């Protein structure tokens, strides 16, 4: 039998799989707090600059002596006086985190395809916790900024592998659900971080508390098994059978006679064994076209998602309530995702494109209403609506992308798409500064990004109820549906 048949035997989503997925999904709470950390620890309170004693100060270092903060806030801004000419350092620290995510996606994705999901995940989580404590104890801004880069590097790598594991532990019919639970828990993590920030105001204490949950999740993750799908795709059939039998035993099933198809060494199934990993995304015609479209979709999702979320502290009202609200507003998006992506008339492709289009339209509407208006049609409410829509699109993009890539190259494909996604994250902290050109400029950027990505997403094939490809040969034989795919397959056949 193949892997899908084996999951029918051992259980697609049995008690043990629910426990394993729960550990991975709850880890998103920790990862969300790391992603949103700069929103609270980098908060800039109101301040005034008292009259200078000297008409021409001899150095910029004299400036802090004349600054008085009028809000009772403890942040990196108040400790290191990141105001005026130094204010860019707050956005820079946020961008360094997302730059780390980009590097982590590039490195960890192909690495987990090569040496395994579990060792890469555990190593990344361990070092993320270590570097998180460095952030909390940083003696100066330079160490803090470097630690955020390193935390981002680990966060980007393990986030990718964590998501893949939640899907490869279960049967394909549960992929949409586990993927959605992952994104939903990330949103809950944002809200919980806002609540944590309300009760723990000193930025070092907040950073320490937010990072400590990572220790618990690391200890819970140590006992997780390797992905049986990855083992099978690498030709390690006996080890895959051992994992599946263990899962069956913990599920209360008997699978003593479970035998997977013997496919030889490296079922990796590349059309040409000389080309592996990311290179295959370039030379394989089907993968190349899919990857180009998906990279832009992920970039747009990230730019709009993080641009709106990181702007929460700039919205009027309590910054802690705003952070929590921008997390909680995502929650209605996920039941919508589960409903639409499993309907034959909607599916993955149309649902993702529609939510992106609606997110762009919500941002467009913010430019058509006055700034001071009722709460129902205020800029804040429309921004929250845009956040809800782009959250749904982002969640579908994760599930959809994992189905568009075969097992042997799934992490590499997700890694490249996430790399593009992180470019959007790097730019997101600086988009609000475009208000200096025009107050509507940030929302213009979000609007155009969402609408264009939605249109491009319609070029991809539908994967609903389709078989999950394990090898590149299976991908070529099952590619269907869209104009891009038919051209790619024709090119492959002519070769």
UniProtKB/TrEMBL annotation:
Location of this chain's protein in the cell: Membrane
GO cellular component: membrane
Predominant location: membrane
Positions of transmembrane segments: 21-43, 90-108, 120-138, 144-166, 178-200, 289-308, 320-341, 353-370, 376-400, 412-431, 443-460
Membrane topology (UniProt): Multi-pass membrane protein
PROSITE patterns registered for this protein in UniProt: MFS
Keywords: Membrane, Transmembrane, Transmembrane helix
Domain of life: Eukaryota
A UniProt-annotated Pfam family: Sugar_tr
GO MF annotations, alphabetized: transmembrane transporter activity
Record flagged with keyword Isomerase: no
Domain Major facilitator superfamily (MFS) profile: 21-465
Protein's name in the database: Major facilitator superfamily (MFS) profile domain-containing protein
Organism encoding this protein: Echeneis naucrates
Origin organism lineage: Eukaryota, Metazoa, Chordata, Craniata, Vertebrata
